[in-house]
Amino acid sequence: MKEKVYLKFEELFGKEGEIKTYFAPGRVNLIGEHTDYNGGHVFPCALTMGTYAVARKRNDNKLRFYSINFEKLGVLESTIDELKYNKEENWINYPKGMIWAMKEEGFNINTGFDIVYYGTIPNGAGLSSSASIEVLTGFVLKDLFNLNVDMVKLALLGQKAENKYVGVNCGIMDQFVIANGKKDCAIFLDTANLEFEYAPVKLKEEKIVIMNTNKKRGLGDSKYNERRAECEEALKELQTKLNIKSLGELTEEEFEKNKHLIKDKNRKKRAKHAVYENQRTIKAVEALKENKIEELGKLMIASHNSLRDDYEVTGKELDTLVDESLKQEGIIGARMTGAGFGGCAVSIVKSDKVENFIKNVGKAYKDKIGYEASFYTVEIGDGPQII
Ligand code: GLA
Q1: Is residue 188 domain-resident?
Q2: Could you give the C-alpha distances from 54 to 22, 28, 78, in angstroms and in order?
Q3: How many domains does the chain have?
Q4: For strand 385-386 and strand 374-378, is the pairing parallel, antiparallel, or unpaired?
Q5: 44 lines ligand 1 (CB under 6 A)
Q6: Count of H helices and E strands in the chain?
Q7: Is residue 48, in this structure, part of any structural domain at all?
Q8: The domain containing residue 56 runs over which residues?
Q9: Sign of the four-CA dihedral 188, 47, 144, 71
């Protein structure tokens, strides 16, 4: 992989000077969905699939970008002084957004650079290809310009690029886990204060299988921002009586006692999901620590049901993948992962049943939806690296 990107760089931009290769992972969230902008917990892990970059500093202010995933777009040029969102510029808004966020923060990025990217995570599929490019670009900048910035800060700047430059009001989960990922561990993160711990995921007899609906979608045109606004509104209604800063502070009982304060039926459902999902995430981490994998599976299924019925972010493609998964031998648990509205689902499956699982779910999905799903048996990997 590394060679492929390196050779492309040399072909496009020449062999001279100091050229370096970098990698940042994609991510999958095991549980804790739509909780990260509600002050709740999340439980994602970094993947060994991710984004590669080969880069070299320049002496002028020019930026030259190329992605092997978007060959038809060719080399896209800009400068470090022209950092404004432009829909037409397609994928380079993510790296440009990151450069913008870092410059805004006062980091001294005084020359341009040439860079070639190659992602092995499918684009726009809910495995955080965009956060991967953002954090990777930040990591490249840290190295090229010798910047004193830690990985938590890089994650926050990635989120800022997404919120303020690209215009998606995402939470901190994706950038955080990508920046801080650790092999064979999931990250139990409290998004209220960014305290986190690594929880080993010791699956001896099981595998994590990601199922891609292959339904095209983009977060920007999804209902993501709408859900976030609904939760904020519900919080305000609860705050008329409760002294809380976020929905993540509530237990299920406290929510039930006070839910009458939320006047709208849909808002009540959205807030219920945020509260219950946060508690499920806390329970899931406990279950995993005690090696109660079946219990983790049950919580994953409850998470999907809540995302389908109360948060209403699944859709027939994701529901079909999860329903069909739950019919298979060797299934421990399955749920949608990421923002929803298409994208991917994640399942835990007994290792010796994975082959049949993929065959059967794949066939049922094709029969019901009309096109193929994709499947990836994944490993949990480390955060950004120079390779
Ligand atoms: C997207 C966002 C995250 C998070 C998830 C839903 O991946 O980028 O911040 O909100 O959706 O859990």
Answers
A1: yes
A2: 6, 24, 18
A3: 1
A4: unpaired
A5: no
A6: 11, 13
A7: yes
A8: 2-200
A9: negative
